[in-house]
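Please supply some protein, with fold tokens.
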Amino acid sequence: MEQEIQLEHALANIQKLVDNIETVIRGKRTQIQFILTALLAKGHILMEDNPGTGKTVMAKTLAQSIAGSHNQSSVNFKRIQFTPDLLPMDLIGSHIFDDIKKEFIFKKGPLFCNVLLADEINRASPKVQSALLECMAETQITMGDITYQLENLFFTIATQNPIEMEGTYPLPAAQLDRFFIKIIFGYVDEATELDIYKDYLGIQNNLQHIQQVLSMDEILFLQQETEKVYIHEELITAVRNIIWGTRKHADIVLGASTRSGITFLKCLKAFALVNGRSFVTEDDIKAITLAVLDHRLIYRNKEAKQKALAGILDTELLRLSKLNIAK
């Protein structure tokens, strides 16, 4: 009974967060669900699209919706604008000399936060991009001989411009693998865009006065509840089959790793909870496979990119459809 009450409380909190974000971000329910999926799975998300689609506003709205700790009005939110001249120390921090103490002290950089917006991440060099690796994978930063632990809640929302755009550096495979989910943010439909034009002043006002509907502790609680979501053994087998399928496919040069499979399972549980369920379904696999795996794979050509993973997924969904999988 207590577990059911906790689940109902968790689902209500998720809905409150979605509704609050939608006061600013219009017509993006699917994208919001993917972002919250990455958050509850204790991962990070990469959003790709042209400038002006609302990626930065999305990150700000999420951060301002969560109340911080230690008398902070909201969680510690930092935005880093990635540029070609950026250096790793601009992210991590550096040692500066203290005239009073007569010693070098470490001045923390913007990576020491709760919600990080890494804006246009692929405009910086690979050396700078790699500065994010340790903090995203292990929630810690090592500077010299000292390792600094980050906050229990550390969530990176990175945006990147399409790689065809001038002045961009493709993210290395190791960096891409740290992002649990990659989505195309996309433009809204015509009707929603017209509504935005009619009410852009109201939307701007909502962003400036966004309500804090959840606390940081409640987000951490939701992350714990995510781990309790039930996933049938056959669905775990399906994840294994899809991962192996990417390694065997003739049009995929680099398949998904075991870490990718574990990430897939975490995201399935989180996506189920975001959608109001305490169990994973076949539809969840269908909905998130491309978002979780596609950016981790290297294809032989563009034509293969359109078909290879989709074909592997269809084969596994066909197998699952012949089974009678109960909750």
About this structure: The mean pLDDT is 86. The radius of gyration is 21 Å. The chain has two domains: 2-226, 229-321. The domain at 229-321 is CATH 1.10.8.80 (Helicase, Ruva Protein; domain 3).
